[in-house]
């Protein structure tokens, strides 16, 4: 049991915070400071070399391509090839700005070189770009490169940066095919099993489209082993409903009322019969009978008082348990309603039958209010991100935040 518990993966607070900020267009407050610099764009226009190495982009694309030793051991070029709106480990590389992003997209020369840099890195990983829509497949050298990728885990940070940069520079649609390919190789083909944690923790959540993320999570859940360790989606809805029906007890209030009614019913005919029969009797007989009735009533009251005390004590305990249960049911019902509403509007498939909320939370995905265009739908993964940001579970190495 102890081994099983330690082997079970856990969500990373740092990953949730990092990818939440990225998906929601994390604002760069240094835009005014850097908007006239455009060093990333000038590097891609081959006007300045990247620092500190002093190498131009054309030399990287022509001479470094295929030199896997150089690409593996040099750690300063990746921040220049795939810039982000956040600071990386190379402090000579400057952050992208929103103004620079727009200028970059307008520059055909920069876009052409950016795609060549993407192809070069895919080949380094053992993958090739097959068409202009972003679909990928195994490269000719995939066996050798997959083995290296499975062992050299610092490249997972590079993949995260590449995915983020694709989204920043206008190639958001390229992300999903690459992540789907990696998930298939890790979970189905078992060629790069060590990458599955990073793929589910980071790669999937770089994708801004909620429906695309859900499709990838459903695919991963179908092939993840052991299935009970899959923590990136909610449990199936049928299980939640089954637990509700099994755990829901009878209401203690109704039990209390029925108990009191049993005592009240026999008293009514007793009083009426006593009053009716006493009319035809002598005064002394009526006095004796009234005395007996009074004693019986006192005994009944004492019994009822004792029973009420016992019942109240039991009722308090059961009320506490029931209150706790009803709260959990209310949370589950609320999450189910939210999920059904968003799903009926934007997703024809039944998400709850495929992939549902994170254990211990509601999905919710680890924080969230989507962009104004998505305010009418509830992003379950993003709500989970909110829970993670407020509480968190476990942490990963801070280096996972940025390459």
UniProtKB/TrEMBL annotation:
Coiled-coil annotated residue ranges, if any: none
Q: Which GO terms describe its molecular function?
A: opioid growth factor receptor activity
Domain Opioid growth factor receptor (OGFr) conserved span(s) in chain numbering: 35-238
Tell me a GO cellular component: membrane
**Region (Disordered): which ranges?**
228-403
Where are the compositionally biased (Polar residues) regions?
310-326, 369-380
- Does the record carry Cell membrane as a key word? no
InterPro entries, per this entry? Answer: OGF_rcpt, OGFr
On whether Ligase is a keyword of this UniProt record, the answer is no
Name the keywords, alphabetized. Receptor
Bias class Basic and acidic residues marks the residues at: 282-304, 327-349
Identify its protein family. Answer: Belongs to the opioid growth factor receptor family.
PANTHER family assigned to the protein according to its UniProt record, in alphabetical order:
OPIOID GROWTH FACTOR RECEPTOR OGFR ZETA-TYPE OPIOID RECEPTOR, OPIOID GROWTH FACTOR RECEPTOR-LIKE PROTEIN 1
Entry protein name: Opioid growth factor receptor-like protein 1
The encoding gene: OGFRL1
């Amino acid at each position: 049991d102890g081994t099983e518990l330690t082997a079970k993966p856990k969500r990373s607070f740092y990953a949730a915070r990092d990818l939440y900020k990225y998906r929601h267009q994390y604002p760069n407050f240094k835009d005014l400071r850097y908007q006239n610099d455009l060093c990333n764009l000038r590097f891609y226009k081959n006007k300045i070399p990247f620092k500190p190495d002093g190498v131009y982009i054309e030399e990287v694309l022509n001479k470094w391509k295929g030199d896997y030793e150089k690409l593996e051991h040099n750690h300063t070029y990746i921040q220049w090839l795939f810039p982000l709106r956040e600071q990386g480990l190379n402090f000579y590389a400057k952050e992208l700005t929103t103004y620079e992003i727009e200028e970059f997209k307008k520059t055909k020369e920069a876009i052409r070189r950016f795609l060549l840099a993407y192809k070069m890195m895919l080949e380094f990983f053992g993958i090739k770009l097959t068409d202009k829509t972003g679909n990928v497949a195994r490269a000719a050298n995939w066996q050798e490169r997959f083995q290296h990728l499975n062992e050299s885990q610092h490249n997972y940070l590079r993949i995260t940066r590449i995915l983020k940069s694709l989204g920043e520079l206008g190639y958001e649609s390229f992300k999903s095919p690459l992540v789907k390919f990696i998930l298939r190789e890790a979970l189905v083909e078992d060629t790069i099993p060590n990458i599955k944690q990073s793929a589910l923790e980071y790669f999937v959540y770089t994708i801004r489209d909620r429906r695309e993320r859900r499709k990838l999570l459903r695919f991963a859940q179908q092939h993840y082993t052991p299935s009970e360790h899959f923590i990136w989606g909610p449990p199936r809805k049928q299980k939640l409903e089954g637990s509700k029906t099994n755990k829901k007890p009878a209401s203690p209030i109704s039990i209390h009322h029925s108990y009191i009614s049993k005592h009240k019913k026999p008293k009514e005919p007793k009083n009426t019969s006593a009053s009716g029969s006493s009319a035809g009797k002598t005064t002394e007989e009526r006095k004796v009978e009234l005395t007996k009735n009074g004693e019986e009533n006192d005994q009944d009251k004492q019994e009822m008082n004792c029973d009420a005390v016992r019942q109240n004590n039991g009722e308090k305990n059961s009320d506490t348990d029931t209150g706790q249960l009803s709260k959990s049911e209310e949370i589950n019902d609320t999450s189910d309603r939210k999920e059904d509403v968003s799903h009926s509007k934007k997703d024809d498939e039944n998400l709850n039958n495929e992939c549902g909320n994170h254990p211990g939370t509601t999905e919710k995905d680890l924080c969230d209010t989507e962009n104004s265009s998505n305010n009418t739908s509830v992003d379950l993964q993003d709500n989970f991100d909110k829970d993670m940001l407020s509480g968190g579970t476990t942490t990963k190495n801070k280096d996972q935040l940025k390459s």
